[in-house]
Structure formats: C-alpha cells, structure tokens
Amino acid sequence: MRIAIVGAGSIGLLWASRLSRLSYEVTVLTHTIEQHKRIVQAGISCEELDGQVNHTNVTSCPIEETSELSPFDIIFITVKQYQLQNVMELIQRCSLPFTQILFWQNGLGQEKAIDELQHRPDTYVAITTEGAYRKSDTHVVHTGQGETWIGTFPHQEQWKPLLQDFVKTIQPIVISPIRTENMILKRMWEKLAVNAVINPLTTILEVPNGELLSVELENIMEKLTVETCQVANRIGVELDHSRTIKKIREVCNLTSQNLSSMLQDVQGGKQTEIDSINGAIIQYAKEHKVPVYWHEMLYTLVKAKEVHNKRNTNTL
Ligand code: KPL
User: Fold this and answer.
1) Is 191 among the residues known to form the active site?
2) Atom 7 in ligand 1: residue holding the nearest Cα
3) What is the Å distance from ligand 1's center to 131 Cα?
4) What pTM did the predictor assign?
5) What is the pLDDT of residues 273-293, one digit of tens each?
6) Domain 186-314 in CATH: superfamily?
7) Active-site residue (options: 191, 246, 270, 289)
C-alpha cells in the first residue's frame, strides 16, 4: 500500500517513522528541497517516550516536484491549517477518486478544504492529543502520550474497509490508542477547546504544557472554556464545560514536558495557528453574537508575540 505524508513537521515525521516500520511504502512530501535532501541522506530518527531512538529510511519528494509521482492509496495531510490551500492541487494530482485522505490539523478550517474535494467519498478528519516535537528536519521526539480519533468527514455511516483495516494494523505500533469516531465534529471542538487554552497560554508564558497546572491559571482556563462551550453549544455541538476543563488538565498532564506547537512556532519565528484556533472561535462567536472577551485578549497577545518574534528572528 502506498502512503503519502504531506508535510514533514512534528506529526508528519512521527507518522512517517511509524508507518515505515510496517510494510507500507511511505513517501514524505516536504515543503523544502533541503529537508527532502536531508531525509534522503539521513532517514528519520524518532525518539520514543522511553528514550529509545528508532531509525528508518523513507522515500521523500519535495512538494513542488510531485508531478511525476503515481497516485497514493492513503494520504495523510499533516501541514498546518494555513498551508492547506497550497497543497490542494497536489492532493488532487496525487490521488485517485477512491484514495483515502486524512486531515490531521489542529483547530478548524480543514472542513473548507474537504468541501473543495467534494467529489471524493473518502475524506477523514484525524484528531490527536499526542505530543511531538521536531528537533531537526529528520529528527522527531515523541513527547507525550495522547489519544487519536479518526472519523469520516463529512459524516458517513459506512467506513471503507481499506481504512478500517489500516487503523487495526497500525494500532500495535502506537502506544496511544487510535479510535474510529462517529462524532468527529464534536471531537474537533473538544480538541479545539483544549488547544484554545493550552496553546496561547503556554506561548505567552513560554512554558511547557505541564507548567499550566502549577501556576495560578485556574480562573483564566475556566473563563476561556466557558466561552468555547457557549459558542459550540450555540452552533449545535454539545460541549460540557466541566468535562472539557477535566480534559484540558489531563492533556497538560499527559504532555507535561511538551512545548505546545504554538510555542514551538513562535520560538522558531514561524506563523502560528492562532487564526484557526482562538481566531476560529472568535469568528463563530461573532456570527452567533456570543461574547468571547478572553479569547479575543489571548488572540491579540499571541498575534503581538508572533510579530515581535518574527522580527527578532529575522534580525538575528
Ligand atoms: O495539540 C497540541 C499542540 O501542541 O498543538 C497539544 C495536545 C496541546 C500538545 O502539545
């Protein structure tokens, strides 16, 4: 089975490493030619939770040179939300009508990309709370156990056997459970609620996820979560506020050593996903006239930090 992984960030590298340990033909599609060359030379090293390093060789190709590739059976899209538009044409080109396409983004926005592929029956959203950190172009560190849910999007009653078998096959190589989910939209909002608290707060404070539990942030976490749940409930997604707070604390614990992806982005002088996380909540809130002052405040602070750090990185 031929699998493409589009985007070699932390989640892309983690999955490339895992899948290439099974008997799949894995190709990593990179944004840069430099990363492609490094992967070809060095393969991928994946540092597991127990400190063991798994080394695998995978095929790689820069996204801009994919015109010659034959179609894939499964495509993992692991680029950020704001990069999705840049890979839509590639997805069309590298897939057959029945290729199974999995979207692995944080936040919201992948629904619009999936909409653009409307003639395809096999699109899925994957939601994960696993923590991973890209140490270099070829080295990923698995920093936190979590859960992963995969669901058809838009919702379909029937799963294609290919993906169902695939999920069963990959289960033994991952410590964290992978579940098939019938209510993936709810999961997307649950994960959004988690990211909308952990990511901006860790970014502003510059601390690993676990630190959020040891400082006096109870009140802010609570206020943000109440706002998220109000917006979700207004659009018909049932989110319970106390369950969501419990979940956020659990993720902080499970990924305590992890630097959130947003903090990693800011430290690397990169664009963050704030627009598709807190920004998406603010957008829905506006449309449905729900006040979300706390999200607006964090959104503004992260945007300011993003600009500041980009400027500093560029002048170094
Ligand atoms: O998804 C994450 C992220 O960093 O974006 C969490 C689950 C918060 C792990 O760090």
Assistant:
1) yes
2) 129
3) 6
4) 0.90
5) 999 999 999 999 999 999 999
6) N-(1-d-carboxylethyl)-l-norvaline Dehydrogenase; domain 2 (1.10.1040.10)
7) 191
